[in-house]
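Input (structure):
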């Protein structure tokens, strides 16, 4: 299941040790092709892997997004990663997802000048009104005992995109032609590791950071006004009432 696609020696010309140093990971798994990097992260975590493990695949054959949706992951075209976190306290699931989304936005701003990234709750990366990436966090716990979170991130770095998604998706290379996968990894991965030590709930600063980068669908009759401490979306309806949502509609 996990490593069936084969371990590779280099990723965009860099070996695992070079990537480990650049990303701050404790260990790196480089795969040529795999069903889902998240499955590999869970397998390694269950076998005792330390926090800070980074799983990278050049290609995924069964990448997944929220609500069972698939994520297209062609070879060499994007970043398909899973990062292993072992939080000291059990975070609210919505809070960790928002934090990862904010880390992704900050990384894109650093590595891809001019991209002007936004977040569409609950963590689609939006660039030029199209989806450029996504986040999926999967937790494993046994009651209140120590568990782990596998943070899955997929980002379209290079095109061309498949015709069936070209109208709604975008590769960051369209707005930042010089961007490389390694440059984005260097900006992103070090921002993920500190998230394991954050409190369960989002701080007001984190909630404000989300509000500043929140993507609102043009023409929407509802007004998203941010998130609460749990990471749930707060939406103002046309009648002025405030609705709290924990799942997208």
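Output (sequence):
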């Amino acid at each position: 299941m996990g490593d069936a696609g084969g371990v590779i020696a280099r990723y965009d010309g860099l070996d695992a040790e070079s990537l480990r140093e650049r990303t701050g990971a404790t260990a790196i798994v480089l795969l040529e092709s795999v069903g889902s990097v998240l499955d590999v992260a869970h397998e390694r975590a269950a076998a005792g892997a330390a926090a800070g493990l980074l799983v990278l695949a050049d290609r995924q054959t069964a990448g997944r997004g929220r609500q069972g949706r698939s994520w297209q992951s062609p070879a060499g075209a994007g970043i398909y990663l899973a990062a292993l976190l072992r939080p000291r306290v059990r975070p609210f699931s919505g809070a960790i997802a928002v934090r990862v989304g904010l880390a992704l936005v900050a990384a894109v701003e650093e590595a891809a000048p001019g991209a002007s990234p936004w977040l569409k709750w609950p963590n689609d990366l939006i660039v030029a009104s199209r989806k450029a990436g996504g986040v999926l966090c999967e937790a494993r716990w046994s009651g209140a005992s120590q568990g782990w979170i596998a943070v899955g991130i997929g980002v379209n770095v290079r095109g061309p995109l498949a015709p069936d998604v070209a109208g709604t998706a975008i590769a960051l290379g369209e707005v930042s032609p010089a961007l490389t996968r390694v440059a984005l990894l260097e900006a992103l991965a070090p921002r993920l590791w500190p998230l394991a030590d954050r409190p369960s709930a989002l701080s007001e600063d984190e909630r404000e950071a989300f509000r500043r980068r929140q993507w609102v669908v043009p023409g929407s009759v509802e007004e998203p006004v941010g998130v609460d401490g749990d990471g749930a979306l707060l939406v103002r309806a046309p009648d002025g009432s405030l609705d709290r949502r924990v799942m997208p509609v």
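Notes: The chain has one domain: 10-218. The radius of gyration is 18 Å.
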